[in-house]
Amino acid sequence: MMDTSDNRADPNASVRDEALALAAAGDDAELAAELYAALRASLPDELTALRAHCVAADWPAVAELAHRVRGASRYCGVPALDQSLATLERVARDGGDAGAISAAAAQVETEAQRLP
Question: Rounded to two decimals, what is the model's pTM?
Fold first, then answer.
């Protein structure tokens, strides 16, 4: 059995880091709020697609979705979600361990649900 302990997001990562979001938005608080709102609005559909790709064992699609959502999350000050997406993208690109991919996908869902 493969050791997946390094496939977990940092348990100390912040759910939401307003300062990080503000810095990513060039100190524009309105833009930071808009980016976060857009991410939150898109997550339900993205998670639905993620579940479908996992059921189909379409690991390249899982990796692509994780990459795309991570691109958005990087500007929103959501370190725990960002880390979980990075892990999911990495294990899905490796493509060999369905258990690790499923665990990483579940962690993405957990982190998405924790967002305020």
Answer: 0.87
Q: With bands split at pLDDT 50, 70 and 90, how would you rate the model's confidence at 11?
A: low
CA dihedral defined by 38, 40, 80, 16, rounded to 10 degrees? 80
Q: Return the pLDDT at 7.
A: 44
The total of other beta-carbon atoms located within 10 Å of residue 1's CB is 5
**CATH pick for 14-114 out of 3.40.50.720, 1.10.1740.10, 3.10.450.50, 1.20.120.160:** 1.20.120.160
From 12, 17, 3, 7, select the one nearest 115 (Cα to Cα). 17
Contact 14, 83 (CB under 8 A): no
pLDDT > 90: percent of the chain = 86
Residue spans per domain, the chain:
14-114
Q: What's the pLDDT score for residue 30? A: 97
Helix (H, G, I), strand (E, B) or coil at 45: helix
